[in-house]
Amino acid sequence: MTVLERSELEASPLADLHAIADQLGLEGFRRLRKADLIAAILDETGSDGGGSTSAEEERERPEGATRTRRRRPARSRRGREDGEGSDEDERAPSVGEDESPELVAEVDADTAPGARRGRRRAARGGSGAQDAPASPRGRGESEGDGAESAGRIAAGVVEVLGNGSAFLRVDPPEPSDEDVYISAAQVRRCELVSGDRVTGPVRTPRRSERYPSLVRIDTINGASADAVSDGARYDELPVDWPRERLALGSQDPTLEAIEWMTPLGHGSRVVIVGARQAGKSETLRRVLEAVSGREELDVSLVLVGARPEEIAQAQEGPVAPVAALSFAASADSQDQAVERAIDAAKRIAARGGNALVAIDQLDGLHPHAARKALAAARNLRDGGSVTVIAIAERPLGGETTVIALDATLASTGQQPILDLAASGTLKPELLVGEEGAQAIASARAVAVEAAS
Q1: Among 381, 343, 225, 358, which Cα is nearest to 300's?
Q2: 129-187, pLDDT tens digit by residue?
Q3: Which of 211, 227, 370, 414 could disulfide-link to 409, CB 3.0 to 4.6 Å?
């Protein structure tokens, strides 16, 4: 039985009411106005707000029930009036600490707030966000999973989402209600890619969650997650110049000129440059059409700073974008979208696969983010590769291939629109042989002479 007087509650600062509501375990009390909060406290404690407990109520108290006095925390008057401070600061201290005598609430021990909160917490399986960060123990183990990690063991195939998180599909490839959520932190830590088979313990969904969550990752493709994750990081692996040519095999005159005059390779850093209306986006779209559908190459497209019409067109194109942000999006959002796509490609290459990331375009990114995305492309020695083909107004520096387009040729409908004098590939002999490299040099010399 609780004794609370409405007059005392109404005279109390809001911070004190928050402290009482926290002790009573009220949900969402911080969103209530003062009058509603007082009503909720009185309703929770069973008080009518009229005064003290009657003799009849005292007789009805269960035998053995005791009263526990709850007092408000001793804080400065300014802190109480402002309602500032963390949740921890607003919890009432235990008996024996410095206490203020202004407000006293009495509750039965068998209905004490701590007991009620404990029962509620147990009923909903704890609290926290579904995408909680993983603990330093690695391999994707979430904080506070000690008691929950004894749940069922899930096994399935990973499907990485565009925001960096993932789902463990227990009945791939179709989604189901039994699928298990994997946080973005776990995906990054264990360098998961779509198609990986993983196992690990699962905890049940919490109150605000729809899917169960993976507590930690035990195995990846049959191997220990520790062994997989402790391997060398992508940025630490030895690299080499691109040596395996990326054939386009297109009848398009511009793509033919690109393939032979500015050859691309697995691991190339490619920038398509040119003035406005030079056909950069259309050229990139045709390159994607030429390389899409190849089993040995994982192709992804990121649209950042694009027109809404271009986004709609790309979604119906040969490669659906993994992220599509219009020019209204902030530079930070564009940076993050590109970084997620690059991270996914790195994980593929670290496992020995070949990935290609197309970015349209780099100009809306912060300069450092743009250079970082381009620098991620590399040919891993005795491993996989990441190829980046990006659109930019001008070269950034560090490219292995520059494809310059001529806006005049594009506007008049002439083909090919490649500006050979401004284009080029570093060490083309590794991709097309010595004779091919000499032929490229001769053609460029003629183009430079004609341009002058």
Answers
A1: 358
A2: 344 333 333 444 443 443 444 468 999 999 988 788 999 999 887 888 889 999 988 99
A3: 414
Place of tokens 């490669």: 319
Fold category of 239-451 in CATH = Rossmann fold (3.40.50)
> Which residues make Cβ contacts (< 8 Å) with residue 55, sequence separation at least 6?
none
- Extract the residue ranges of the chain whose pLDDT is less than 70: 1-3, 46-151, 229-232
H runs (alpha helix) in 296-364:
308-315, 331-350
Nearest to 204 by CA among 217, 192, 216, 213: 213
pLDDT, position 230: 66
DSSP for 5-37?
A: -HHHHHHS-HHHHHHHHHHHT-TTGGGS-HHHH
Architecture of domain 148-229: Beta Barrel (2.40)
Domain ranges of the chain: 6-120, 148-229, 239-451
How far apart (Å, rounded) are the C-alpha atoms in residues 226 and 236? Answer: 18
> Given this model, what pLDDT does residue 99 score?
36
Cα separation of 130 and 120, whole Å? Answer: 18
Asked if residue 359 lies in contact with residue 322, where contact means CB atoms within 8 angstroms, the answer is: no
Q: What is the pLDDT of residue 55?
A: 39
Within 10 Å of residue 82's Cβ, how many Cβ atoms?
Answer: 12
